[in-house]
């Protein structure tokens, strides 16, 4: 982490932290992108910060108004990060993109589970993975950036009584992507999603990583008190 990017205070001040920027040039590029996003989208709330980061991730400020925050997901995410609860992802790309510094949550990819179930039932491997892991989802963070089928499966699990602490659901595509996010927003679980067919791994990863950054800043601020 660049020396300039060390945390200094609360989440919406003019200071800036990027846990992934390990060189001066990387931090300078990240910082400039964030300043442009702040000027365009505002910087008043934690949700603004997530809108900024997701817009940067896709290179389009049109992403910001599509994001939806259900049942106060940011405080829920920060609380779960403090408990070191597991983070479950749909695919390896999401798994690899999640920031590993600043927290102690184990990160688990559903695609590594349920392969036999997928063959037997003829369902997608990501859906089967979450079904195989269902008993571990209670109190956990679920991050789905690619597979609408897996988000629909998680929604069905919630309706059956499984209770993840928070879900980031931004699957992309023309088949069930928009519909799966509508289904997610019908549930009481805290969630971050977006409207329509857009989304994808970059959006999901940006949302969780910004929450991890805010978590690190919060710990730093507590240490300064």
Summarize the structure.
This protein has 225 residues and is α/β, with parallel strands linked by helices. The protein has helices at 24-41, 46-58, 73-82, 92-97, 115-121, 125-132, 148-159, 177-185, 201-224; strands at residues 67-70, 87-89, 107-109, 141-144, 166-169, 191-194.
Cα gyration radius (Å): 17 Å
- Major sheet attributes: 6 strands, mixed
**Using DSSP, what is the number of strands?**
6
Q: Poorly predicted ranges (pLDDT <50, ≥5 residues)? A: 1-11
Helix count from the secondary structure assignment = 9
- C-alpha end-to-end distance: 23 Å
Tell me the series of helices and strands, N- to C-terminal. HHEHEHEHHEHEHEH
CATH class value: Alpha Beta
- The main sheet orders its strands as 1-6-5-4-2-3
Helix coverage percent: 40-55%
| CATH level-four homologous superfamily name | Cobalamin biosynthesis CobH/CbiC, precorrin-8X methylmutase
Shape label: globular
Question: Approximately how much beta-strand content do the residues carry?
Answer: 5-15%
Mean pLDDT: 90
Structural class label = alpha/beta
Can you name the CATH architecture? 3-Layer(aba) Sandwich
- CATH topology, by name, is Rossmann fold
Number of domains: 1
What does this structure look like?
With 225 residues, the chain is of the alpha/beta class. It has one domain: Cobalamin biosynthesis CobH/CbiC, precorrin-8X methylmutase (Rossmann fold). It is 48% helix and 10% strand. The chain has 9 helices and 6 strands, in the order H-H-E-H-E-H-E-H-H-E-H-E-H-E-H. The chain has a 6-stranded mixed sheet, sandwiched between helices. Helix 2 (46-58) packs across helix 9 (201-224) and helix 5 (115-121) packs across helix 6. The protein is globular, with a radius of gyration of 17 Å. The protein starts with 23 loop residues before the first helix and ends with a helix. Mean pLDDT is 90; it is low at 1-11.
């Amino acid at each position: 982490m660049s020396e300039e990017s060390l945390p200094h205070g609360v989440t919406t001040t003019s200071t800036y932290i990027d846990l992934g920027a390990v060189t001066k040039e990387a931090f300078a590029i990240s910082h400039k992108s964030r300043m442009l996003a702040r000027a365009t989208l505002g910087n008043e709330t934690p949700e603004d910060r997530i809108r900024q980061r997701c817009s940067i991730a896709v290179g389009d400020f049109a992403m910001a108004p599509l994001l939806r925050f259900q049942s106060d997901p940011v405080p829920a995410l920060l609380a779960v990060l403090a408990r070191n609860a597991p983070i479950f992802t749909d695919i390896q790309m999401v798994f690899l993109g999640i920031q590993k510094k600043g927290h102690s949550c184990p990160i688990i990819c559903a695609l590594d589970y349920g392969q036999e179930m997928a063959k037997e039932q003829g369902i997608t491997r990501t859906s089967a993975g979450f079904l195989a892991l269902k008993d571990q989802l209670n109190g956990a963070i679920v991050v789905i950036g690619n597979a609408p089928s897996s988000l629909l499966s998680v929604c069905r699990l919630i309706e059956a009584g499984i209770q993840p602490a928070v879900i980031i659901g931004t699957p992309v595509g023309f088949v069930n992507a928009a519909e799966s996010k509508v289904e997610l927003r019908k549930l009481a679980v805290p969630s971050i999603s977006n409207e329509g067919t857009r989304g994808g791994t970059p959006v999901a990863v940006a949302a969780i990583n910004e929450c991890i950054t805010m978590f690190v800043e919060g710990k730093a601020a507590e240490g300064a008190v």
